[in-house]
Amino acid sequence: xxxxxxxxxxxxxxxxxxxxxxxTERAERYLAGILSPEHAKRALRAFFNFCRAQKWVAVNPFExxxxxxxxxxxxxxxxxxxxxxERLMSAVPPKWTPAVAIMAFAGVxxxxxxxxxxxxxxRVGDIDFAARKIxxxxxxxxxxxxxxxxGLPDNLWAWIEPLRGLSAEDSVxxxxxxxxxxxxxxxxxxxxKDVLRHSFASYAYHYIGAERAVEILGHIGGFAxxxxxxxxxxxxxxxKKYFAILP
Length: 247
Prior knowledge:
The protein has helices at residues 2-7, 24-32, 37-53, 61-64, 82-91, 97-106, 154-159, 177-186, 195-207, 210-217, 222-230, 236-242; strands spanning 127-128, 133-136, 147-149. It is mainly α and 247 residues long. Strands 1-2-3 form a 3-stranded antiparallel beta sheet. β1 (127-128) and β2 (133-136) form a beta hairpin. The protein is built from 12 helices and 3 strands. α9 packs antiparallel against α10.
């Protein structure tokens, strides 16, 4: 990036007279003092490769320069209150309530239900009402691994009962992801990205236990990642109320 090339001689390098003077130590000092060291390293590595090809420098200091390790701060995931979840389920059009319920009470991702750019989604045939399980096929799953959701909360099945008897080929969500965005905006409830999945995870921790919640969510990182993000965001009492929300 030309901005990195312009800033390099002026930031922590004011004494630089010739690019041949740049060694790995100087390169690392520079990378430690900027906000996007990985991006700058790529740009300057390409520049010094050019300089080396022109024989202006003998080595490329950015080839082996290490970028600083920085601890990232993670904000707690957004979680809907029980009252806001009740408001949402009452506000969305009835044809959308089964899909929204699967997001809220089974933690399924919105784009696994409402098609984005024609992608494959959960269909009515993926729901086994008799065995009380939902299959997220590999071609539907974000991580391209099949998930079979069992042990789901009882209240979910009351919400998705209207799907029983529909064609197995029908999509659970009645329209595309673009329509889902409009449904969210019109609901009157603030719905940050993935808030329903986060809400399920936070309440499920107390209601069905961490192990089963991790299996339903399909967390590749397992319990440690799950607990890091969701433990403590809800209480057992709130969890009982959340999974008692019924049509």
